[in-house]
Amino acid sequence: MKLNIAVLAGDGIGPEIVAQAQKVINAVATKFNHEISYTPALVGATAIDQVGDPYPEATHQICMDSDAVLFGAIGDPKFDNDPKAKVRPEQGLLAMRKKLGLYANIRPVATFPSLLDKSPLRKDIVEGADLLVVRELTGGIYFGEKGRSEDLKKAFDTCTYTTDEIERILKLAFAYAAKRNKRLTIVDKANVLATSRLWRETAQAMEPDYKDIEVDYMFVDNAAMQLIQWPKKFDVMVTENMFGDILSDEASVITGSLGLLPSASVGVHTSVFEPIHGSYPQAAGKNIANPVATVLSAAMLLESFDLLEEAELIRQAVNKSLEQGIVTEDISKEKPYKTSQVGDWLASYI
Amino acid sequence: MKLNIAVLAGDGIGPEIVAQAQKVINAVATKFNHEISYTPALVGATAIDQVGDPYPEATHQICMDSDAVLFGAIGDPKFDNDPKAKVRPEQGLLAMRKKLGLYANIRPVATFPSLLDKSPLRKDIVEGADLLVVRELTGGIYFGEKGRSEDLKKAFDTCTYTTDEIERILKLAFAYAAKRNKRLTIVDKANVLATSRLWRETAQAMEPDYKDIEVDYMFVDNAAMQLIQWPKKFDVMVTENMFGDILSDEASVITGSLGLLPSASVGVHTSVFEPIHGSYPQAAGKNIANPVATVLSAAMLLESFDLLEEAELIRQAVNKSLEQGIVTEDISKEKPYKTSQVGDWLASYI
Ligand SMILES: CC(C)[C@H](C(=O)O)[C@@H](O)C(=O)O
Ligand SMILES: CC(C)[C@H](C(=O)O)[C@@H](O)C(=O)O
Fold first, then answer.
1. Quick one: A324 and A222 in the same domain?
2. Are A181 and A79 in a shared domain?
3. Which tens digits make up the pLDDT trace of A195-252?
4. Sign of CA dihedral B342, B343, B344, B349
């Protein structure tokens, strides 16, 4: 197979971790005889510094022309404590989501047997947890009309959803549930919000088409509780943009392996694969960041082209590296490996 | 002191648990020579059944005339799976909040040493956690304009906030922080929402008036993570209505003692004191529900009138009951006490 991958390494540790994922993809390509080409492009604070735009048009074109996007991380502390800064790295992220039509963010969260003691939860609560959070990513209060009154004393944000948007994401969520354990939890706040009531009605209308999926509706406050109390009871969870932002981050810490979690953002034009962790500026350039989340994002990338064996081999390599302690300092302080050493080990295992 | 308490027992286990709190208040009143009168009133599903309104005008008048409201719980499963039901118990709750001007919901969350093993979190993570969540309760997306397009294919909700609303709740949060460990975490999504940016600007403008309070701004997704990863790092957390709904429920499960947590909703006209748990319909009438959260809510009620010694005595009684195993079946399955027995024990201890 021929794949043309746009590489948006971004800020902080982005370049280092993306480089390891590329090593791993290359190893897989050699072994399975695929032809991979990479086109790098600017994004985030780096792009603001160089061309004044966190998601430049040139980058957008490269993404549009790609089969998939491998993304590192964005964010720089110099923008953090200034909510009024005119241009911010996050705007690039939101622009990318909108322009590429990245309507679904997919986050698998599963415990790694060798890392159970990293979880803040009790072992018996978290052991064996394996869930997938599907977050709507281009609608809701993120993209609705917002602003300030003339006297600046009043602000507003609008959350909107259409049945088309809701159906599109629910279809995807049902499909994931069908491939997994056939349980789908739809999270909303239908006792308060009009948009949530539209979500619930739309879902209820779709249910008959998915008779083999067990559907469950849950209010967002309840979901925030149950994720911690009984993480094992969830299979696929789907929800709107803002609730998904909160719940997917909450879900990501229950296994204690934040530095290992990948994600995919499924798009209309192309899809983006990235670690869920941030740009970790304190570690930038030190060759100490954990590349595994990005490597596993690369596995999701290959999987999206039905390269299942390839993806599985990457996951196997990662599991072996964890078992054998070929890990960065966030996982083991005793004899930590460097970022590049972990990448080399994974590539040579493959 | 003379106190006139409106008693809104509500649905499910509401009447049973409120009765125990009244026993405890009466014991305190006798000991400290206070004169307490109670005026019962209808609310919730019970009120819908009897007069067709979950927060009838007569109830509202009783609340308006009261010094404080002791509230049980509302909610009935017969309304649960019908998001289109015309009248729902929750509407009564929202109407009550709005009409009584209950602008702040206060939830203290602290570990009970004797119940550490109930927490879903690891003991070392949760031991000693002691935080207070302040949730704005009469603004935001709960009360903004909402609706559906004519063809029913589009829905919207509006989140609005004014500087006055924000200042009022932040003042209260700063005051709580001043009485506690002098740390205030202000949670928002200022990188995305216009209302959050107004919250942050308003807070930043207030900071100089509270020089002894250490203020910290946190995005809501990050707060959802840190609550689980490092619950001990929080002292007072304040946030807007929807985020507060999610985060206060999330916070309530980290200590594992959901059935023990009280709350206060501070109002313009009167204040409401209630357990944070629900109406638990499966247990209704069985005399097995845990009355402690309601009893501790009564302690918050007394405290709000500066009856500090009285409140402290109630807390002491509760701690003793937990240590001595005078607890309902949710806490100990071995030799559980009945709801009324726990109430009697607490009253006679006092
Ligand atoms: C940076 C921010 C705008 C973004 C979001 O809220 O979507 C981030 O939190 C995420 O989840 O990817
Ligand atoms: C019942 C519901 C409307 C309510 C809310 O969301 O405020 C409840 O979840 C709560 O937190 O008191």
1. no
2. no
3. 999 999 999 999 999 999 999 999 999 999 999 999 999 999 999 999 999 999 999 9
4. positive
